[in-house]
């Protein structure tokens, strides 16, 4: 049997030494391969491991907050991501760019590439200063106009603090264009603005991450510079137009962060007199995010010039929480591209601002309520008087009121004639009623009484609705004025006599008091045939109280229209009462009153026995 020898012993075969060398080489190659693999193919951390004990957002030196799923600086993953990233574009300091034309002066900050001031040169605030559309308190809390809104609150906040590089600084005149760029190597943002000589500008916003687009919207987060108290906020609405149909959403109908799908001709937010409306380039793919926040404001307007919802010093008894509405426009197919109207809700301006569909304008943005058509016609007539007859809005209201009363004067005469006919047959009507007075109200024979009365009126040419015609005409006019006068920006801060603002209440309540007195005289001088004297006396007190209550804290322009109309009505009725028709009507009314009271009729000052 062959003998087995230890290879380590002297004289062992050389083949065993070769085997040993081969094993050493294989081990060396194996560990070298493992080292190379670890170096060039690092393991990625699991999602669970990354989320444990890691803050959601990490601020970078530029102030831009990195979302929690972004590669952290200094890690192998960040190095790999930055290998193909674009160069960083960031400003080192905050700077302003002012764009100006004859209508406005807009100040942009490169921090967020957003608007910090939007002065409308043709309008003043309640303290005589140039009106700034930017509501400072709301902007500081919820964002400035034309800021970027995304569905990631962290990213939204970051983009509003990002230091953009503007294409121009200082003051530039319109027409012009302005571009803002920002990149932190991960996110890239571009905002462009184009201006002309009108209240309309064009804007575009594009946000990408590592080259992939991110849904970004252009926002007006809420508020206008003319808003001062809780009542002003209640008049703020989100306004949208879809396929030519408009809708005005009050605060209780708006959910914060809710998205409305297109198509949209236009959409935005407005208050009593001013609006910020987006007119998207692509209405069919446009989307609107509705913004609803809460803000602490004064219950009443400040008198110290602070305004804009600032809190009362000391306790909070003078403040209240109110909704703050805003809107943001975007596009489902890419960057948000839109025109923006920011200015007054003036009819002559709005009707010349067209959507992408040229048949659609912003004119319906001015909503006059249920009697809107009549209100619009009345305002156009008022505007014509102001432009061609008198340049004062108060006197224009007076002249328009005189014209309206002159037009309905023939109807007043017809009403008096109809009332006189009614009084002539009143004794016969009373006799018919007496014949059926023993019947119950539910008795079918009551229909016979009504038939006899109607036949009597027909035989004598009496129209039972003849006395209602002036009222049926005047009431819609009154309600149309009620809805129109407080909403037209032309009457804002319009002076007349002692009135500083025809769209606000009379500060001395002179017109409401005049309303009460004149309304009482109207009831006193106007004959009411067929009306029970007790009911007539009740109306003589109820109507003045009602009119005084409406006009006490309402737009003084309405009180002016109503009071002037009453004075004209009193004068007209006083003249008509002196005519033969008026004298006969008063005699018949007096005779009926005596008969009702049981007094015998008189003839030449002597009582006549029946």
Automatic annotation (TrEMBL):
What sections of the protein cross the membrane? 20-36, 368-387, 393-413, 464-488
Query: Any idea where the Membrane insertase YidC/Oxa/ALB C-terminal domain is?
Result: 393-578
Q: Which GO terms describe its cellular component?
A: plasma membrane
Q: Which GO terms describe its molecular function?
A: membrane insertase activity
Question: Could you mention a single GO BP entry for this protein?
Answer: protein transport
Matching InterPro entries: Membr_insert_YidC, Membr_insert_YidC_N, YidC/ALB3/OXA1/COX18, YidC/Oxa/ALB_C, YidC_ALB_C, YidC_periplasmic_sf
Localization recorded for this chain is: Cell inner membrane; Cell membrane
Q: Where is the composition biased (Polar residues)?
A: 42-68
Instruction: Tell me what topology the record assigns in the membrane.
Output: Multi-pass membrane protein
Q: Which UniProt keywords apply?
A: Cell membrane, Chaperone, Membrane, Protein transport, Transmembrane, Transmembrane helix, Transport
Query: Where is the segment annotated Disordered?
Result: 42-77, 591-610
Domain Membrane insertase YidC N-terminal positions: 98-380
Kindly report the protein's main subcellular placement as a broad class.
Answer: membrane
Q: Name one Pfam family in it.
A: 60KD_IMP
Q: Which family does it belong to?
A: Belongs to the OXA1/ALB3/YidC family. Type 1 subfamily.
* Record function comment: Required for the insertion and/or proper folding and/or complex formation of integral membrane proteins into the membrane. Involved in integration of membrane proteins that insert both dependently and independently of the Sec translocase complex, as well as at least some lipoproteins. Aids folding of multispanning membrane proteins.
Q: How does it assemble?
A: Interacts with the Sec translocase complex via SecD. Specifically interacts with transmembrane segments of nascent integral membrane proteins during membrane integration.
Q: What is the protein named?
A: Membrane protein insertase YidC
Instruction: Please give the organism.
Output: Granulicella sibirica
Point out the gene that encodes the protein. yidC
């Amino acid at each position: 049997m062959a003998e087995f020898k230890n290879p380590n012993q002297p004289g062992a075969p050389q083949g065993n030494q070769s085997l040993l060398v081969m094993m050493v080489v294989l081990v060396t190659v194996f560990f070298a391969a493992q080292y190379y693999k670890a170096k060039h193919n690092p393991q990625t951390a699991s999602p669970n491991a990354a989320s444990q004990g890691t803050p959601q957002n990490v601020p970078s030196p530029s102030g831009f907050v990195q979302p929690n799923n972004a590669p952290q600086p200094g890690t192998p993953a960040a190095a790999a991501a930055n290998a193909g990233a674009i160069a960083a574009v960031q400003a080192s300091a905050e700077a302003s760019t002012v764009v100006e034309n004859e209508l406005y002066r807009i100040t942009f900050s490169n921090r967020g590439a957003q608007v910090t001031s939007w002065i409308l040169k043709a309008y003043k605030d309640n303290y005589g200063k140039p009106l700034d559309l930017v509501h400072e308190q709301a902007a500081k809390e919820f964002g400035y106009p034309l800021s970027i809104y995304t569905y990631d609150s962290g990213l939204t906040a970051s983009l509003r603090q990002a230091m953009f590089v503007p294409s121009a600084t200082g003051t530039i005149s319109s027409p012009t264009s302005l571009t803002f760029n920002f990149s932190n190597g991960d996110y890239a943002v571009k905002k462009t603005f184009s201006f002309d000589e009108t209240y309309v500008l064009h804007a575009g916003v594009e946000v990408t991450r590592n080259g992939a687009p991110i849904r970004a919207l252009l926002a007006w987060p809420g508020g206008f510079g003319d808003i001062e108290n809780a009542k002003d906020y209640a008049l703020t609405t989100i306004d949208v137009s879809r396929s030519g149909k408009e809708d005005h959403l009050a605060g209780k109908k708006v959910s914060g962060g809710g998205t409305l799908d297109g198509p949209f001709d236009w959409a935005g937010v407005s208050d009593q007199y001013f609006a910020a409306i987006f007119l998207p380039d692509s209405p069919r793919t446009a989307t609107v995010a509705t913004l609803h926040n809460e803000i602490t404001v004064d219950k009443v307007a400040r008198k110290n010039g602070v305004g804009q919802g600032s809190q009362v010093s000391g306790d909070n008894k003078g403040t209240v929480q109110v909704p703050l509405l805003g809107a943001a426009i975007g596009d489902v197919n890419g960057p948000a591209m839109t025109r923006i109207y920011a200015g007054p809700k003036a009819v002559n301006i709005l009707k010349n601002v067209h959507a992408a569909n040229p048949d659609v304008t912003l004119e319906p943005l001015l909503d006059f309520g249920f009697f809107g058509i009549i209100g619009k016609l009345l305002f156009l007539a008022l505007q014509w008087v102001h432009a061609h007859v008198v340049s004062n809005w108060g006197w224009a209201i007076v002249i328009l009121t005189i014209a309206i009363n002159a037009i309905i004067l023939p109807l007043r005469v017809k009403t008096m004639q109809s009332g006189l006919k009614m009084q002539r047959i009143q004794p016969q009507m009373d006799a018919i009623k007496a014949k059926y007075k023993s019947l119950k109200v539910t008795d079918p024979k009551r229909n016979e009484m009504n038939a006899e009365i109607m036949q009597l009126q027909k035989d004598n040419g009496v129209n039972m609705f003849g006395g209602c015609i002036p009222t049926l005409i005047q009431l819609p006019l009154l309600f149309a004025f009620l809805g129109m006068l407080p909403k037209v920006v032309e009457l804002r801060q319009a002076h007349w006599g002692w009135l500083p603002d025809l769209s606000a209440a009379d500060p001395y309540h002179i017109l409401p008091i005049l309303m009460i007195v004149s309304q009482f005289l109207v009831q006193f001088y106007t004959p009411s045939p067929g009306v029970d004297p007790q009911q007539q006396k009740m109306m003589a007190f109820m109507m003045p109280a009602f009119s005084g209550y409406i006009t006490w804290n309402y737009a003084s322009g309405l009180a002016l229209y109503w009071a002037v109309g009453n004075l004209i009505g009193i004068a007209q009725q006083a003249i008509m009462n002196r005519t033969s028709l008026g004298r006969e009507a008063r005699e018949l009314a007096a005779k009926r009153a005596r008969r009702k009271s049981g007094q015998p009729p008189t003839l030449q000052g002597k009582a006549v026995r029946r």
